[in-house]
Structures are given as structure tokens and as C-alpha cells.
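Aim 2 progress update. The chain analyzed this quarter is reproduced below.
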Amino acid sequence: MLSYRHSFHAGNPADVLKHLVLAQVLGYQTLKDKPLDYIDTHSGAGFFELAAADAQKTQEYQDGIEKLWQHTSKHSALNDYIALIKSFNQTADLEFYPGSPKIAEHFLRRQDKGWFFELHPRDLLLLEENMQGKRSIRVRGENGFAGLVGLLPPASRRACVLIDPPYEVKDDYDTVITTLMQAYQRFATGTYMIWYPVVDRSRIDNMEQDLIDSGMRNIQLFELATKADTDVHGMTASGMIVINPPWKLKQVMDEVLPELVSVLSESSGFYRSEQLVAE
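Predicted C-alpha cells:
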């Protein structure tokens, strides 16, 4: 099934959380001079115009990045994220929102490699257009789950991975865990990030338990809920699970998540910042 397109959802609260964590992880990973392999399993188009029809149909960015556009935080991590998004806009107005590939490209250096997978034919063409011009960037119209496993272990011996399927296929919840465990067996020292939506809380509970039982160590979970869980159809929250996170990531998220709830969420909103499995 290839109906999902992220252009309808660019810049929403889930993107804010995902890209804040991604920027923190890549910022830390690129402090070392050693080469890094970055792998994005479900890349999407990579860059979005918010005045376009898809974004205007849902206007989800109004509940996310737009609420932060004029916001000044007392925490540098959130200010840095806002400044990063502003760097993709040529004026003071919010017109464009970068997807995960463009955010990753911002951090990747000449010695690094970026691997970007996308199956949707239209988004693949847009991704190729948006990511052209760098030898170190590889765009592949292949299954990202299989592609990830095939790239491990990387020649650089350092890997940072984002696994963020749309979960429109219910099997994705299980496939994410299965793929992660295969990747971890091939390269246990990589940093792995899993994005997830909270539509049915029981599915997330099952994912968490699978991770706890997996034998993997040092797993952190960060979640931003804009409203309370509900049985009614629709996403109420999203999260990022990070295996082998940077050592200060949880401290940063402990500071920033309460502020994000205050700015982005309804009164019933909440956050989670947990060490799911110890080091």
C-alpha cells in the first residue's frame, strides 16, 4: 500500500518531536571527526511547501511548527530546532518545512554518507530532486526495512538510523521491531530511532514490551501527546524510541517536553520521557 504522503502532515506536532530528537542525535553524532552512515528507511519527499494544496487541506502545521515560529525558549535545544527550520525559509514567514532527509543533510559532512529509502513513486521523484547534488547522498526506491539490514554493518563502523514508516499497514508495528532486532544483531553499537504514532495505545504497549523483552540495552522513549488517549479514530500523540542514545539526550528532553506540551497541547495533553531499558 503506497497511499501515504507526508505532505499532508508536514510540520505537525509529530514532526516537531521527531525532528527535535533527530537534530539532537545528529548534532551529537557529528561532533566526532570519524565518518558516519545515516540511514532513513521511509524518507518521503524530503521538503514541503506549506502553501501547497496537500498541506493546506489539513493545515496540521498550524498545530505544530506555526505555534513555535515566534516562540523563544529558555532551552537552547528548542531554540536551535526553531532556528534550524527558519534556515530553510528565505523570509521571516513560515513557508517551507524540511522533512527528515533535509534535516539530516544539514548535519551530514563530506566524510559522511546518507542513505534514503522511499517507495512511493511520486515522492521518490521529489526526494531525488530535493537531495541531488551531493556524492555522499544515496536515494533508493526500495523497501527501507530490507535496505537498512542490507547496509549493516556499515564500512564507517558508525551508524545513525531513523525508522519511521507511516503505519498505514498494521503489520508495520511488528515489522519495525523485527527489522530493528535484525539490524541490532548485525550492528549492536548503532544509534536507532523509531518514530511511532499513538492511534491505538495497545499497539504501542506491545511495541514497548517487545523492546523490553528483546535483550537490547539502553533504550529511551520520548512521547508528546497533544490530547488524551481516545478510542475515537485519530492520532493523539507520537513518540520517538532511541536505542543507544547520546548521553545527554534524556536530560535535554526532560527540559523541553514540558514546554512543548504547554505550547502545542490541549489541557489534556501530556508527555513521557523514560529510560525504557537501562544501559
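Strands lie at 37-40, 47-49, 96-98, 113-117, 137-140, 159-163, 191-198, 219-225, 237-243, 270-277. The radius of gyration is 17 Å. These observations will guide the mutagenesis experiments scheduled for the next reporting period.
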